Fold this protein.
Amino acid sequence: MEHIVETDETAFNRRSALEIAELIKKKADIRICFATGATTKGIYHELADLHRHEGLDFSQVTAFVLDEYEGASADNPASCLARLNDQLFDRVNMKKSNISSIASTSTDLHQVSKEYEQHIGLAGGIDLMLLGIGTNGHIGFNEPGSPFHSTTRVVPIGEDTIHARAHMFGSSEEVPKTGVTMGIKTIMNSRQIFLFAKGVNKAAMLEKALFGPITQDIPASVLQLHPALTVIADEEAASGLPHRSMNY
């Protein structure tokens, strides 16, 4: 496990984008799974800037969307795909045919989940998984209690996520109560994982997830077992981590 700590949000966003960019440069046809949320928004803007100003090439990159809300179509600005389009995909030279997302408007989300998992496998698996961490330890829509053997599946949306997304959907009542997410096993099958965390509100959970017991009560804790995990945090989020583990 590697820990990278930056002083503030600007440095955090830039360093995170540069780490991703280096992997794209090494493997032009890299397969990346993209998460959404407040933590990654600035990172994606930095990646778009690297494309615009330094020519970072996304033309061969294959993108997977980590999760999606039930019934949220691509033209719904609150959907995960729409936000990724706005923050990154539409700002770089990524081919639309190389973007895989979850068909969450389908009437059979269980079949959609099965097909998405199969699609990931047929594509050759995920080279790089980009994740944020929830204040309750969730990754993707994998809330506390999610089994470690889980693959892509239909799940209830956690209360923390519902409240966090209320402003995007109009109110908490309007946030879909169900979604589809890659499972813990799907995430752990990725060849490399970047876990991003910023802000003091993530400090306690980040410390528990990385140095506490590995338990389904804290889904992110399973990442301790991944052989190629890189944690990138700002100083506030990293304030609870053992100082010896930090790489500034």
